[in-house]
Amino acid sequence: MGMANNTSQSFDFAGLSVSVSGDDEYAEKLREYFRRSADNANGAPADLAITVCEDKESLTFEKRYASLSEGIVFNEASCLIKRGRLQYRVDNLFGGGPTALTMFWNAKESARDRLRRTYHTSIGTCVEERTDEDVFIGAVTNYSLLWYVCAITLMKHDRVFVHSGMMTDGQNGILLSGTGGCGKTSTMMELLSRPGWKYLAEDFGVAGSNGVLWSAPKHACVYHTDALHGNDHIAHALAGLPSAEMRSWKRSVRAGNNPRHHFASQELFGADGVAKSAPLTKAAFLSRCYDVEQVTSVSASPEELGQRICAASFRELKELYEILCNIRAVADEDCRSAYPSLDDLQQKYLRILVPALERAECSVLLVPPHAKPADIAEAVAPTR
Predict the structure, then answer these.
(1) How far apart are CA 347 and CA 359, in angstroms?
(2) Mean pLDDT by 10 residues, the chain (384 residues)
(3) Contact present, 165 and 184 (Cβ < 8 Å)
(4) Using an 8 Å Cβ cutoff, are 160 and 357 in contact?
């Protein structure tokens, strides 16, 4: 990819404005990622300003403390975090006003990183990382600091990240939460095969305290095990992969792996199959359970469901927890007071989520290990 124009483009993210700026091909790759899954923000001031810089000088600030062999460097307002070839500077994450995220990608790949990428490409566990720009976008947009920063920015505006699948039948918004591997994605795909149903979010959903579910720009992650259920949307998307990526996918399956690929929402469902928002009317937490023979719905209070969803969602933010623990362990009291504890964040999370759940029918779905996506979907939205 050649050098991009010096541009800054803003995108809508659950009613917030996220700008992406930078001069090089990596910044353009990130803008392309957002363009595939988010609308323009029409010039609204940025609530989160992301900059991809070409040199590490842009990451410089007055340092006070460090931890993890300078893997984390910080003061009261700014934090520098090093993760492999990526370095992030985060400003004003927990204060009032806009948050800034500046990132630097080391274009010089180490021998270790090159061996790792060659290995994963050869076995096809991730079939997308073929160029250095692909490696960059994978590092930035898989569960990484970018989404942790987005999650905290959302909380500053009475919205929360929910580890869930979200969809709508055209009138009602449905939230399916649970821990990894519980069947959220396959159940969502089953429901979206019904006429009139539309996609909102997969994995990284957004709920507002006012009971609105929002779409999010994070691309959906489809695994081979999701494709085994015979969903037409997944089959069509996989059929459209470039031949080299499809060969890598098949090679990985033959080797006994579970390859994955990320798709923007419109690549899976088409423009008419994606909604921007919907009112929350039903929320369910999927719990795999050996004590039941069939999918069983148990009524839950908004408070109980909120606690379950909070636990499942914060598990996905575990690296943020590690960062905060290191900061609070190393800093003095004045600096430490600028950063919340995990309990502080969870209490704020629940103050936003529970009022949203109070507007919905809340339940826990006990799902036996042998249950199929169609069985769970029928319990979520009965057709008979």
Answers:
(1) 19
(2) 63 95 94 92 90 93 91 95 94 94 88 57 55 89 88 97 95 94 90 94 94 93 84 88 88 90 90 95 97 97 98 91 92 94 95 98 96 95 86
(3) yes
(4) no
How far is C-alpha 25 from the chain's CA centre? 23
Give the per-residue pLDDT at 191.
95
d(CA 28, CA 129): 16
289 φ/ψ angles, rounded to the nearest 5 degrees? -145, 130
| Displacement of CA 359 from its chain's centroid (Å) | 24
Q: What is the pLDDT of residue 149?
A: 95
Residue appearing with tokens 């369910």: 284
Cα Rg of the chain, angstroms? 21
State the pLDDT at residue 1. Answer: 37
Q: How far apart are CA 246 and CA 257, in angstroms?
A: 14
Question: Using N-to-C axis directions, what is the helix angle for 145-155 and 132-141, rounded to 10°?
Answer: 40
Structure token pair of residue 191: 């429901």
CA distances to 128, 246, 261 from 120, rounded to whole Å, are 10, 15, 13
pLDDT digit string (tens) for 79-136?
999 988 999 999 999 998 999 999 999 988 765 665 655 555 554 555 555 788 988 9
- Spatial distance between the Cα atoms of 327 and 247, rounded to a whole number of angstroms: 45
Tell the residue number behind the tokens 């993760």, with chain if given: 83
Q: In what side-by-side order are the strands of the sheet with 65-67?
A: 7-13, 16-22, 48-53, 99-105, 86-91, 78-83, 72-74, 65-67
Would strands 159-162 and 65-67 be described as parallel, antiparallel, or unpaired?
Answer: unpaired
Tell me if 378 sits within 8 A of 190, measured CB to CB. no
Q: Which domains does the chain have, with CATH numbers?
A: 7-155 (no CATH), 159-219+264-380 (3.40.50)
**Backbone dihedral region for residue 293 (phi beyond 0: left; psi -120 to 50: alpha; all else: beta):** alpha
Burial class of residue 104, CB neighbours in 10 A (0-12, 13-18, 19+): buried
pTM of the model: 0.89
